[in-house]
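Technical appendix A lists one of the benchmark inputs used to test multi-chain prediction within the project. The record comprises two sequence entries:
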Amino acid sequence: MLTTRPRGTNDILPGEVEKWHYLEKVCRRVCSDFGYQEIRTPIFEHTELFLRGVGETTDIVEKEMYSFYDRGERSITLRPEGTASTVRAFLENKLYAEPQPTKLYYIGPMFRYDRPQAGRYRQFHQFGIEVFGSNHPSVDAEVIGLACTVLEKLQLTGLKVHINTVGCPQCRPRHLKALVDYFSDKKDKLCKTCQERLNKNPLRILDCKSDICRELAKDAPTTRSSACPSCEVHFTKVLKYLDALGIEYVVDPRLVRGLDYYTHTAFEILVEGIGAQSAICGGGRYDGLIEQCGGKPTPGIGFAMGMERLLLTLETKGIDLSQLLTHPDVYIAAIGEKPQEEAFKLAMELRRKGISTEKDYLDKSLKAQLKAADRLGVKYTLILGDEELKARKIVVKEMAKSEQTEIPIDDIINYLERGLKTND
RNA sequence: GUGGAUGUGGCGAAGUGGUUAACGCACCGGAUUGUGGCUCCGGCAUUCGUGGGUUCAAGUCCCAUCAUCCACCCCA
């Protein structure tokens, strides 16, 4: 236990963490190109925020939250997603008072108590964006376009954008009623979970995986078929804007999303080959949420991307990120106490100059130090012993060429700077 | 919360109940003076996730427990 991490969490080790840096860099870069600014909110919030913001009947709230009482008897919850916190921050910091819309992004850990499996963890990481203050359909398309751009920059192609409209407060009740009407005489034929869904969340029957339910749901009223005229207009415009961007999509009438706050546009980006959890990105519009959280009626839209799933995807697509690994430029091998001392000082000096330098810390033999230098992949190994010290010189060995020369110690920085500049 | 699979050194992986737990990789050291990548030699699990039990004898059988993986539910 002492040496075992909690279930569903991961250590991101050297060799792996470089990939995360790269992913984050791409996300930040694309966001900045699109005019989105980063926001960092707390990792925990008052539990009420998620009850209200995510929805009391969602699975997240009903069974997946990491909640606890702090020493002040306040109920605190580790954030299960990013939208609620972002909305809270938008309201609390009165960002609505600035020119609208507000375009934000976040990257960070989220927490859900769930059984781990491929692409699903209890602590996982999301990159997400939110736009508050515009219900313009081009924003819907832009948000999707941003997600696609990130994936493109990562050289991920062939991903499917699924899109649907889930309606608005006007047409949603109508649709729910139509659904219930449609299924009520077929109820006993539905699978057990769908029978429950009929009362609890009839929308979800539409994407049940059971063949029987699929068959039964084939002619069910879709959210689109029950959409009110304004929803339909919005949706067609979104599609038109997507066409304008040249983004390929599949209108998927069975796509519904699990969080209560979605309205109008809902979308997912799916990949094959990363296990059962195939959505690497999910999002949509939530025009009622900000009001729900105590703000003035303000439209909003966003998505979240699962970083672990992105990484899995990169892996299965065979996209090689190994060139991201960095290695030191210089290794200093020293023999003897006095040279070690000098090597220590020299290493520090080189590092301050921005020359990445490694040395021995275990009094290894020269042979072993050379071996270590080789494995680190340095360009130069400096060899320093009593003889060199006496002559105020240092041996510089260029590893790839197996050539070495003696350089006066005082010139070494210049020499290395020149040598490292030329190639790589 | 439910179901299935797995659990031997840092990693991969042999091991039909019976003396000292293969092998490969990695790691460490050495092959005469202070020099890497190839080769050769040597070292590296009082112990088989943990705890019980069966047995003269268990890594090998049984039970429990924990963990991991995968799937369901749901979601990123």
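Residues 17-34 of chain A form the longest helix (18 residues). The radius of gyration of chain A is 28 Å. Comparable benchmark entries are summarised in Table A2.
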